Amino acid sequence: MNGQTKAKTDLREITTHSAEETIAFGRTLTELLTPPKLVLLRGDLGAGKTTLVKGIAAAFGAAAEEDVTSPTFTLVHEYRGSQVNLYHIDLYRIDTPRQFETLGLNDLRSDNSILLIEWGEKFPHLRRECDLEISLERQSELERKIRIRS
Question: What is the pTM of this model?
């Protein structure tokens, strides 16, 4: 793209009022997330990123909602479905390009993979390469505003 950043356009915006609604919304995203996809999940700690992934993983048959947990300490969780390999990645503790390279995320990319990356905005090349950006913003204890941009 000649070094230019692609313009992001809003595809969808919704406010959920509970964790259950956030999970349910995640289940509706399969059409937008047809592999291969690289998706940035943005939001502060506790914004609901992992809660959203619970619905996405369940919708693809890659994991039961209760089996999806935050990859904060393991950095990468892999969920395998019959048609999709879902990778939930957390870069919160990754600070340098060298640390990033050791994760080998390029090796995870394939025709049937979806990479859902938390804190990916720390690495500008991921922002340029991503297919979708999903932002979660805490409105109150239970309410979340979710925006999807391509």
Answer: 0.91
